[in-house]
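During the no-cost extension, the postdoctoral fellow (Dr. R.K.) reprocessed legacy sequence entries with the updated structure-token encoder. One reprocessed record is reproduced below for audit purposes.
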Amino acid sequence: MMTKRPLPITIIVFVFFAEGLLRFGGAIALLLISFGDIVLAQFQMFSFVMVSFANLVACFGLWKLRQWGVLLFIGVWLFNFFYALILEGGPIGLTKSPWDCFMFLISPVLFAIVILPYWKRFNN
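Re-encoded structure tokens follow.
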């Protein structure tokens, strides 16, 4: 039996997926450009690709109303937060544009407001 996806979840997943797709494409491009550079830069680019891919997988889980999608999205955001805290000196260090600030700092708030009230509708 298919459960109908609430409209707020559809909208926020579309926004997060579009943003994640742009970041994934940018991460792949940066990885290809930095190919042959120092090992640390390659590691950072590879981790950026993997985190971007995990974000897209989390969006798929949210689209399918799966609890693992919610948990993966939270895990990806926490990884990004601590990665920024350790390597960048704080999450604001990553915000080079207003869109980055929005997605990094506001997205967990939007996520909590929109997705978490529907937690009981998500399947394992």
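Residues 7-118 form one domain. Residues 27 and 49 are 5 Å apart (CA to CA). The remaining legacy entries will be reprocessed before the final report is submitted.
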